[in-house]
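Entry type: protein chain
Record version: 2
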Amino acid sequence: MLLSLAAGAILLALILTRVQGVIGSLSEMAARAELSPIFLKTVLKVVGIAYLAGFASQVCRDAGEGAMAGKIELAGKVGILLLAMPVVWAILDTMLNLF
């Protein structure tokens, strides 16, 4: 269990170094498209929550804690919903202003 957790943490650290390049590219594309940086930040936070919740739930499943894994997944989904609400409102507001 500890070996699996340590290996996962090391792999996560290695992946995060690669993700910085992707974030830079996404920031450039958002700037070219003249998108608000708030939207990009929100999307990146949502992706981060999804990956962290998935990682944590897999660790719990490896430890035989399936019920805890389900609760972590639910918490991640609620967190994503809460973060996404301002984006949803902005999209709805834009759509309403078009009509």
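Comment: The chain has one domain: 2-98.
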